[in-house]
């Protein structure tokens, strides 16, 4: 019924520069509700993208996701 995911990432294009462009941390909470095939997810995240000047300021984001899982039978 419940699931928690923790993710982190470091992003950059090493072909252009060895400098990293973005750091990211997020947590995702997923829960089944009302029906066995209906889920919602809450996902707060913080990232530190590098600006053209080279500074990195924290950016906050929040995602709400609603998922419907279809299951069928093969004939």
Q: Topology of this protein?
A:
Layout: E1 2-11, E2 22-32, E3 38-49, E4 59-68
Antiparallel strand pairs: 1-2, 2-3, 3-4
Helix content: under 10%
Derived structural class: mainly beta
Cα distance spanning the termini: 30 Å
Number of strands: 4
Oligomer: single chain
Describe the sheet with the most strands: 4 strands, antiparallel
Element pattern in H and E: EEEE
Calculate Rg over CA atoms.
Answer: 18 Å
Widest beta sheet: strand line-up? 1-2-3-4
Strand content: over 45%
Average pLDDT figure:
86
Shape annotation: elongated
Q: Provide a count of the helices.
A: 0
Low-confidence segments, given as residue ranges, are: none
Report on the structure:
The chain is mainly β. It is built from no helices and four strands. It has strands at residues 2-11, 22-32, 38-49, 59-68. It has a four-stranded antiparallel β-sheet, with no helix packed on it. Strand 2 (22-32) and strand 3 form a beta hairpin.
Describe this protein with a few key phrases.
0% helix; four-stranded antiparallel sheet; 75 residues; mainly beta; elongated
Write a brief caption for the model.
The chain is mostly beta strands. It has strands spanning 2-11, 22-32, 38-49, 59-68.
């Amino acid at each position: 019924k419940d699931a928690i995911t923790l993710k982190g990432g470091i992003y950059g294009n090493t072909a252009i520069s060895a400098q990293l462009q973005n750091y990211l941390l997020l947590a995702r909470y997923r829960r089944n509700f009302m029906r066995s095939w209906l889920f919602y997810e809450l996902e707060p995240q913080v990232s530190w993208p590098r600006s053209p000047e080279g500074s990195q300021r924290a950016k906050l984001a929040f995602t709400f996701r609603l998922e419907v899982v279809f299951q069928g039978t093969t004939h």
